[in-house]
Amino acid sequence: MKRRTNRANAKVFMSTQPFLDKSKPYYQCQRCGNCCRWPGDVNVTSEEATAIAAYIGMDEAEFIRDCTRLNANRTGLSIIDKPNGECLFLDGLNTCRIQKVKPLQCSGFPNVWSFPGWREKCEAIEVSV
């Protein structure tokens, strides 16, 4: 099977994301894992919690009890951190155990949302589309 180029991947992603500002650059994730180690909330919707629980083979109530907490602004759930601050689902060097069903907050970074200074930590590369 032929692997898509970064440019082809970017075009596919952009075509499926109507809410993206297409006048801004697109950044292709390099799976550096740095965003998985930043402190803060990884918010999950109820639909995302359902999908993640099913993907990892947990009952949804068990997933919510064991893998989430109330987020900082008390408006929903967030994935809990490991004691060292990284995401609960980050394994090894940079393997996301829920990659196929990860929350939009994760999959949308840095193209859907970002914060000042993100380029200093993130290894995503700009790809022209």
Automatic annotation (TrEMBL):
InterPro entries in UniProt: Puta_zinc/iron-chelating_dom (IPR005358)
Q: What is this protein called?
A: Zinc-or iron-chelating protein
